[in-house]
Design brief:
This protein has a domain at 21-175: Hypothetical protein af1432 (Orthogonal Bundle), CATH 1.10.3210. The protein contains ten helices and three strands. The chain has helices at 6-14, 18-48, 55-71, 73-76, 80-92, 104-114, 122-133, 145-148, 152-170, 202-219, and strands at residues 179-186, 190-197, 222-229. The protein has a three-stranded mixed beta sheet with strand order 1-2-3, with helices on one face. Helix 3 runs antiparallel to helix 5 (80-92). The N and C termini lie far apart (73 Å).
Length: 231
């Protein structure tokens, strides 16, 4: 009578390969984390409403940020956790406007670092706060206390995620949700973004020209936008 191999015997015990069991467990854990993060997102949006004078704009920037992140996957090679941080930063990027429009990006950072209602770890506060802070004006620098406080790995993630938020914010510069959907092509020396729009995009066009510099310096590719009127 033929003796089964150790792998066959291990499989026969429960009718399924251990490798499959491990994969299923990992998928269950990942699904559990995803459901947990969705609850956190709802909590974060609820807190943001206390501060944000234009939550519709922040929701549009959130949508565009996630679309850009997903379509740029081959460029940034980041995963679910980083996508979650970007989503949080997009929701919160303008909450500093509650303290006045001048320097509101810095005020957003302060609120993210200090409001204890936010369900963030200390590392997440620095990461999400930094991404939100760099949605406009200065680029990440070690002379900025919050950026200097992070590990090299987290600094690099901020350098990649902040430009995505920056571009998404520029795509809704008029706060009118004129960009309905996008298409993106990654080429050897450039990233081509097609924006399908429903109205005038003078403000968006000007804003993207100012905001794309961080993306280009970090990713090392030209960022080219086409504005296509949706009929």
């Amino acid at each position: 009578m033929r003796q089964g191999t150790s792998e066959e015997l291990r499989t026969d015990v429960c009718g399924v390969s251990p490798d499959v069991i491990i994969e299923d467990e990992d998928r269950i854990k990942e699904r559990g984390k995803e459901l947990g993060d969705k609850k956190k997102i709802e909590k974060i949006r609820e807190i943001a409403r206390k501060y944000d004078p234009d939550p519709e704009h922040s929701d549009t920037v959130r949508r565009l940020s996630l679309e850009l992140f997903d379509k740029m996957g081959d460029l940034h090679l980041l995963g679910y956790e980083e996508r979650y941080w970007l989503e949080c930063a997009a929701i919160l990027h303008d909450i500093g406007r509650s303290q006045g429009p001048k320097g509101h990006h810095k005020s957003s950072l302060r609120l993210i670092l200090n409001d204890q209602e936010f369900p963030f770890t200390l590392d997440e506060r620095y990461l999400i706060g930094s991404i939100a802070r760099y949605h406009r004006k200065a680029h990440p620098k070690n002379s900025h206390f919050h950026f200097a406080a992070m590990s090299q790995d987290n600094k690099q993630k901020v350098r990649v995620l902040a430009p995505i938020l920056r571009i998404a914010d520029g795509m809704d510069a008029s706060h009118s949700s004129v960009v309905t959907n996008i298409d993106l092509k990654i080429k050897h020396d450039s990233v081509m973004l097609d924006c399908f729009v429903t109205n005038d995009v003078s403000l968006e066009r000007e804003s993207i020209l100012k905001k794309k510099d961080l993306f280009e310096s970090t990713i090392g590719k030209n960022f080219i936008v086409k504005w296509l009127q949706k009929i």
